[in-house]
Amino acid sequence: MNGPQSQDAIRRSKGFLGLVEKAGNLLPDPVMIFVWLILGLMVLSTIGAHFGWSASIPYSGDEAPHWATLDNGVVTYTATSLFTAENIGRLLVDMPKTLTGFAPLGVVVVVMYGAAVAERSGLFSALIRSSLRNAPRAILTPCVIITGMVSHHASDAAYVVFIPLAGLIYASVGRHPLVGIAAAFAAVSGGYAGNITPGQIDVLLFGFTQEAARIIDPEWTMNPLGNWWFILAIVGLFTPVAWFITDKVVEPRLGKWGGSPDTELQAELAKSEITPAETKGLKRAGIVAVLVVAGFAALALWPGYTPLINEEATGPAQLQPFYAALIAGFFLLFITTAIAFGTAAGTIKSDNDVVKMMGEGIRSLAPYLVFAFFAAHFVAMFNWSRLGPITAINGAEILKAWGLPAPLLLVSVLLFSSILDLFIGSASAKWSALAPVVVPMFMLVGISPEMTTAAYRMGDSYTNIMTPLMSYFPLILAFTRRWDKSMGVGSLLALMLPYALSFMVAGIGLTAAWVALDLPLGPGAQVHYTPAS
């Protein structure tokens, strides 16, 4: 049994993980991190302007890109102090415009309108419970792992509903419930980069990627499907890896479970049963989902009427309107299937319920809206100072001089993001700060924004389960103590470490191989990028 709280705290403070926890606890909130970044950027821009920092590249266009000067076929970026009258005026006068022009903000709000209804109507919860309840014992582990990675679309329900349910189901078949919780946690959080279809996280991260890519290419537009094949490959790779670790490493270490499916356990399982009304709702939601997908396909394929196809373009560029419309597509898919489910299950009785759910979803975005205000100004001010393209151009020249192969460059981004993930849990917070530098820098050495984003996502994934600073870590610890009162922070970290190390090795190998083989990342998305110049 676990000792007093003081002993638990002493155990947590020991070793490398103890140092990580202490260092992470010293960090401020992500919002305040951006406040300090902005202040530091203002000082740095003044230093750069004083010393005349600049960077130049050949340019074949007739008009200079934004924030640059063009002279005899050469574009030059020169550092500008953010304390100049022009920039201070821009900061104060355009403050509302800077926020509303922040691409990820509109994307997140639109998708959240639909996702909020899907979550609060019970659709996400019912999908998770129905996908796992009747999984055969022999393939229970891979079912848990795949469902866990797919459940990212369900937002908080993936943690609150799915992970404890996995423990219950393992216990119901006589297996150790901590094994189920470990496998589910590994899939949901450690496999965060993988999924079967793109979703909200793709739209969010590519919003930041778009802002950064436009430093080099003002016409670059995000493709929410730009990592589809890559994230699908992660599911295919991580599933057998996690299956092996669960059944051959974690379960033998925990030993045979001493409990049995008692009355209390059966009662808890009964609560997770899919009701007849929910079954009816899921069937309706499935029909509506097919109709929405078919409708979008028709808008791209119907002869003589293709609003989602650019008939004047050639090649992959023809599909750009279709890719851009996927944000609206996610919204329509979520809200229509949620209404179909909710009206059948009884969770939606009128249009007022839908409006209320949408409002609650926006209220839950309040922390993100605060974060977006400061992130938007950091990105904008980075552009005003010209430090972004200067850093990217000079950094690209250094990388070219070193002659490092593309796989090694991308693995370095992966490892750097995984180190940051030990201290800063928010994927969007880290990427909004990193993207303005690494995306344009890698574009200049021939690596596409989609590939850089994919490498970042991989590094931001597997470390989630090996840091006590992850926002859901205390919740997972509470789930484990339902079955074993002696579980502490160190116990949970030790339980998850085999998954994290295995995912790290597999993730690095997959990223390096993907670049080396030059495989497409998704529809219209390639590993390499050819600068316009």
TrEMBL record:
Keyword RNA-binding (UniProt): no
Spans through the membrane: 31-53, 99-118, 139-170, 228-246, 285-302, 322-344, 365-384, 404-424, 431-449, 461-480, 492-517
InterPro entries hit by this protein: AbgT
Keyword Transmembrane carried by entry: yes
Keywords, ordered alphabetically: Membrane, Transmembrane, Transmembrane helix
Pfam families in UniProt: ABG_transport (PF03806)
UniProt name for this protein: AbgT family transporter
